[in-house]
# Entry
Amino acid sequence: MLRDDSYRRGIIVFLIVLISLAHYRTREDLLYLHVIYREMYFLPVVLAGFWFGLRGGLLASLAVTCAYLPFVFLSADRFTGHEFGNLLEIMLYFAVGLLVGRMRDQEIRRQEQQRQMASLAAMGKGISCIAHDMKTPLTAIGGFARQLRRRIPDDDSDAAKKLELIIGQADRLELMIMDMLAFARPLRLDRRRGDLNDLIRQTVEVAAGPASAAGIRIELELDERLPSILFDRNRLQQALLNLIGNGVEASAAGSRVVVRSALHAGEDRVVVEVLDRGRGVDEQEMDRICTPFMTTKKDGTGLGLAIVSKIVQAHGGSLRYRRREERGMLFAVALPWRGAGEAAPVAAPAAGTGPEEERDG
Ligand SMILES: Nc1ncnc2c1ncn2[C@@H]1O[C@H](COP(=O)(O)OP(=O)(O)OP(=O)(O)O)[C@@H](O)[C@H]1O
Ligand SMILES: [Mg+2]
# Structure
């Protein structure tokens, strides 16, 4: 690959040098030859855009301009009548470099997305089979352990403690399996028109118990102008609980997690934001946190954000996140409210990519 790239770079440089030499070594009054050479500069520009994307296309246009401009100035006597043509040509080099480069970049992104979707779909299938097979024996283990525990009257006995441990671990595994199934199975939304603020209030009530046990307050900042929108109550609640849960888990006792709603009228979107002042995400992990099974927690499954992405995308919305100034994270779920976008059949979410300061999930 690297050898291929150097080989291609060599071809582009060779072409630019060759065409420039032809320009400089051809008598200036042979105008038609110079016009042909000038058009030939498009060849390295197009090749660079095609092989190296936007950056390559623009760099080649710049190199061509640098190689060609001195000739234009040196031969000012004979070429002055063509000043406008030369300027236009230089602008065209950049336009073509930009266009071909952008098309190439978009194509590469599309292929990468397709590859990711295919591998996530395959992963989803595998997970679904494993989780399904694990569910029945695990329910039996938890059920029998509970039955046995009820028959032991002495709470302090060794057997009772061990059984409680088994029950606790079986519950945890069952939750993990539910997460795995939620991630792997196709989402079928049951969307009804409703008040998003209402859902947020209810969700925060559910999350407030475990949060206050960890010494964390959840605060609401709701925009009462939100229009009613179409959404699946249970799914969206699941998504918000995951985001709030992450905020709480990342925060130190005594801090607060804020849940905010806002209407982005210009964009036809309502936005729910979850903000915390927790430990945040390391820069090198920023692009990976929505990848399934990526976790930095001892007890985490790493499916929380993957599920959030999937739910939000199924609503026709988007999940974005960024590090906050000073410390902490901001996660923003944007949902369409006008026409409430058609639900796309989502097999699995894509991993986060995006601009430096704000990423998509
Ligand atoms: N608000 C946050 N602050 C700091 N790190 C976060 C936050 N939200 C997510 N992360 C990071 O992203 C990782 C992935 O989050 P995700 O919710 O997908 O999985 P998890 O929380 O580790 O496990 P679970 O499946 O139980 O949710 C986390 O392990 C954590 O490192
Ligand atoms: Mg989580």
Notes: Residues 50 and 104 are 6 Å apart (CA to CA). The pocket of magnesium ion (ligand 2) is lined by residues 242, 245-246, 304 (CB under 6 Å). The two ends are 30 Å apart (CA to CA).
